[in-house]
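Justification of resources, computational component.

The compute hours requested in this renewal are based largely on the per-chain cost of generating structure records like the one below. Each record pairs the submitted sequence with a full structure-token output. That output is archived, and it is also reused by downstream analysis tasks.
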Amino acid sequence: MRALSIGSVCAVMFGVVASIAMSAGVAGTAPVTPFKLGTFEANGREFVGLVLQDKRIVDIGPANAAYEKRNSKAPRIRLPAEMKALIARYESDVGPRLRELAAANVDTQAAYVHALAGVKILPPVRPAVILNAGANYPEHAQGIIEQAQRAAAAQGAAAPGAPGPAGRPPVGTAPGIWEHPSTDSRPDNPYLFLKSPSVVVGADDDVVVPKGREEIDWECEFAVVLGRPAKNVPVAEAGNYIFGYSIEFDVSDRGGRNDRKMGGGPDWFVQKNHDTFAPIGPFIVPKEFLPEPMNTHHYFTLNGEVKQDANTSRMEYNIWEMLSYASNVMTLNPGDMLSMGTPPGTNIEKNNPRWMRAGDVGVCVVEGVGEQHHHIVDQK
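The structure output for this chain reads:
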């Protein structure tokens, strides 16, 4: 694993210490019952739910009413009906109440508790901003370069330069957005691009292949959900701005636009923003329940065959560095999402790609967070 900066180490230690404190209980209370959060639909009604044991969904509205009825001395709290509002209040009054509700409903058979199989899983949050990391796993970046070299050689063209300091111009600081110290040997600065929130779908929804577009690729990614407004955040403090973790399946159209606009380079609008190209969820795990976000296994299968298999420890820039970098460009708000890049195993790295097509089933898994299951279908 790549050595972490002092700020990153501090952030890791903060997360571990917080997790230990939560697991042990606070001021003599019982140990905290782990939970995840999501947005669901049942009986024609949309609601925010606590996810217990990955199989029970507690509708927090009626669960809270029942809790306050049983506990007359408990503070009266009106829980939010929408995830971004919940996230914004989590550190004040909502988080403590959700921990109480989780502990009180581990075995409850109340009407407000649903089986996971009996609800529709919606996107857990509707981010106002989705930022995706580009080439944040070195093996993925290297694979793209090597495939470009093979393609150029086959056409008799000059091959692109090899990666690393010998094949690139010296990396410098990007004033105002990223300070690149001379002791940092990483060959590039962080890289982020925007993905439209309008293309978000749920973790079990279909992924649609647009008409005339045949080079549709997979990218299974670990995602960070913001917990508070963030602007010009130092790396050492970035962990304080994270609410939790989720999944984004960054579906990508590699077909290009076949013209010379902007030098003939990648068109990120076309490549990343077709409808259904941003499934997120199924859940958000509050950060206290995932103490090692930079040591988390995630993988992707297509029709049962493993295509990507990686660990977040392989990232070039970790979650705290990326959050800091993003906040030096734009203000991030509760519910906004950073998707941290894809590991190797995508089709863009291959000489003989096998693109996703109608009839396929893609499964994106982040251990400790959840699973996405997608049928790939043609646009009607």
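Confidence is low (pLDDT under 50) at residues 1-28, 162-167. Residues 130-378 form a domain with the Fumarylacetoacetate hydrolase; domain 2 fold (CATH 3.90.850.10).
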